[in-house]
Specification:
- The structure is a single chain.
- The protein starts with 16 loop residues before the first strand and ends with a helix.
- With 397 residues, the chain is an alpha/beta fold.
- Strand 3 and strand 4 form a beta hairpin.
- The strands form 3 sheets. A 6-stranded mixed beta sheet has the order 3-4-5-6-9-10, sandwiched between helices.
- The protein contains 13 helices and 13 strands.
């Protein structure tokens, strides 16, 4: 669709300052590309606008690269077991600057949903073993502390695969050890955990986990029931996984001396949060960690209008998603916030209550999901242009 003709009015010379701070569009555009396409659409309308791009990550895909770039750090490549058990290339990083040698790991780089072919999507059998292998690699490379980001997972094994890669052993009631990297379904038979063989390199190395504080391991809003269907689980498989998470929670609680079933963040990345608690990691609301390195608050102090974006906007968005966090911080400064989304889902109106003043889908005509993914870039440019035109017309009234 060609660009719309310029409307008359003084806004063509407007020097409005706009912050563009989006997430990415899964399977289509990363946060950096998303910000660039929104900028292009805005500039079609107000070519003299000052636009600052601050693409955000939430601990999922792009977490390592974003923090490496923000601190002038370094990337490290390695081969690990992927979520389906095959060897895959992966990566982690080290923060730059004058600080203890700090490794950055994103679980999505070794156990993300993007790494699971659609015909193999079954969160009951996928594994986080590669996450543990990445932790070991970072430790061997001299990490003095670790920041680990949760998000975009293709697993639901409660982090057992990760812990097995670090030397933990898990046993059934008959005394047999659960197979390595066997996935979440196997946890229904869990009876005991042995941490005596944990890698000694873990000692004295703090692991801080950036996770969605709203995700819990068990209960009606537990990770299996909320996210299992998104990862390919059927109705019966979801209930089996929920039972498996309940069993893991019971055994893990006895081991660590605190109830992990409803602990904030315990359900992050298919229960990886709980598995990380098992090996002594500390969980934090993800933005408490991420915003130490991405200075969005300072940028908000200097703008007039905020654009954010994500692949889907719905009732879950306020539960720790990037548009909600951007809106929350913007509202402290009285700034208007617009959100663009690939799809507008059930209960999206709740986002008006958390600081998003207006939202719009980039889909302007009927089409398949595959087409929307393939054409996300031009659709996003067109949508940003259309929304910006409406904003500027409103300023002329």
């Amino acid at each position: 669709m060609p660009a719309l003709p310029k409307l008359p009015g003084s806004y063509k010379q407007d020097n409005i300052k706009i912050l563009v701070s989006p997430s990415g569009f899964k399977e289509s555009l990363d946060p950096k590309a998303t910000a660039g396409h929104i900028e292009a659409g805005i500039l079609r309308v107000v070519p003299k606008a000052t636009i600052v791009k601050a693409p955000l990550v939430d601990g999922g895909e792009g977490f390592v690269e974003a923090l490496v770039a923000a601190t002038n750090g370094s990337l490290e490549e390695l081969i690990v077991m992927g979520p389906t058990g095959k060897l895959i290339p992966s990566h982690y990083g080290f923060l730059g600057g004058d600080r203890p040698k700090t490794a950055i790991i994103e679980m999505a780089a070794s156990a993300g949903l993007r790494l699971v072919p659609k015909d193999l999507q079954d969160p009951g059998v996928t594994t986080t073993f590669g996450v543990g292998q990445t932790i070991v690699a970072a430790l061997r490379n001299g990490a003095q502390q670790i920041l680990l980001g949760c998000g975009d997972s293709g697993t639901c094994d409660a982090g057992v695969g990760m812990a097995q890669a670090l030397g933990a052993k898990f046993y059934a009631a008959d005394g047999h050890e659960l197979p390595v990297a066997s996935g979440g379904k196997a946890l229904v038979g869990l009876a005991a955990i042995d941490l005596s063989g944990l890698n000694p390199l873990l000692r004295g190395v703090p692991i801080q986990v950036a996770c969605n504080w709203h995700n819990v391991l068990c209960g009606p809003l537990g990770v299996a029931r909320v996210f299992g269907p998104q990862k390919g689980a059927t109705v019966s498989e979801v209930e089996h996984l929920a039972l498996a998470m309940d069993k893991f929670a019971a055994v893990c609680t006895q081991k660590v001396g605190r109830d992990v079933s409803l602990a904030p963040g315990s359900g992050a990345s298919g229960g990886l949060g709980a598995g990380l608690m098992l090996i002594g990691a500390q969980l934090y609301p993800r933005y408490d960690i991420i915003m130490q390195f991405l200075q969005i608050d300072q940028l908000l102090d200097e703008c007039d209008l905020v654009f954010t974006a994500e692949g889907g906007l719905d009732f879950q968005t306020p539960r720790g998603k990037i548009p909600a966090e951007v809106a929350r911080r913007a509202k402290k400064r009285g700034l208007p916030v617009v959100a663009l989304a690939g799809t507008i889902g059930r209960g999206a109106k709740v986002n008006y209550e958390i600081g998003i003043d207006a939202f719009a889908s980039i889909l302007q005509r009927p089409g398949s999901l595959e087409t929307a993914i393939a054409e996300a870039a031009p659709l996003l440019v067109e949508s940003a242009e259309s929304v910006m035109r409406m904003i500027m017309v409103g300023r002329l009234l």
